[in-house]
Every structure is written in C-alpha cells, then in structure tokens.
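Throughout our pipeline, every protein is held as a single compact record rather than as scattered files. The record that follows is passed on verbatim for readers who wish to inspect the format.
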Amino acid sequence: MPPTPPTPPSPPDFLPGGWFGFGIGCDNCEIRQERGRKRFTFRSLPRVESVEPGSPAARAGLRRGDRLTHIDGLALTTPQAWRRFGEVEPGQRVRWSFTRNGQAQTTEALASRRPDARATARAASPSAAQRLRFSGTVGDTEVEVRGAPVTVTRDPRTGETVIRSRDLTVRVRPEN
C-alpha cells in the first residue's frame, strides 16, 4: 500500500468578495493565499456545477454544465484572468464567456455581496441552510452539498476532490 500523502494546510479565506451565485469545479485548478491576496489558478477550464436560483449568475442565464472560458475577455487559463477572478468585488459588472453544448456564448452579471458574509451577523434561514450548492459524482458516488456556497476542485494527479466553503473543507480521496 503506498504511503498516504500529508494532509495539506487548511485553505485560506479564498472566496472572492464579489458573488455571482455559481459553484465551479475543475480538474486542474488551485486556490491559495499569496502575499495577502487570493490567488486562483485555472490550468483547465472550470465547469459550472451549480447555480443558485435568483442569483446574479441565474439572472445572467448561466447553467450547470456551462464551461467558463473567459472573464472580461481574459482567457481563464491566463495569469491576468486568475487575478481578475480573485479581485471581483460587489457592484462590479463582469462579462463571462462560456461554452454550452459546444456553442460559445457571452453574458454579463453584476457581482453582489456574498450572502454567507451576512451569516456571521445573523443565523442563516432554514431554507438557505438547505439550498443545493453542489450535486455531482465523486468517483462512483453521487454527492450532494447543501448550505453555504461551495467551490469544487479535482486533482487529476491524486484523484482527490475538494469541496470548500468559507469555513469548511471536505477532501474526498479515492482508496488505492
């Protein structure tokens, strides 16, 4: 049996300040804190895994399964786009380019304040606590996540899937 790799450190407060109401997943991406700034790296194009009803993403027409390709005209696999993605603030308008069923499309969405940022001031409503944030397959298991907005990443080297929210990290490692 191969040795178990060391547990990575807890993730930083990685979510951008601006919120669109979609969760993403990608096969080769990374989120980390670098010199006090959020650093996103997309080496493969992220998929939209979930869209919150009534969110800026929903109003802009984004759907689960869309593959994001650009932010404000910057290819998401470039350092300029990684920076832009991490620096989005509430009130900023962002142009998203994506593919759906092989067709290129573009839409605009106005970032709002993260709903989970208000959760520290007051308890989240029961309906918000049950809101679907991610639904998909991890290995050969169907997974559903409800509650706070999440980001889902997959490491193709290890097969590990990581589901993160503002204060939670779930790591799913395949058995070898």
Notes: The radius of gyration is 16 Å.
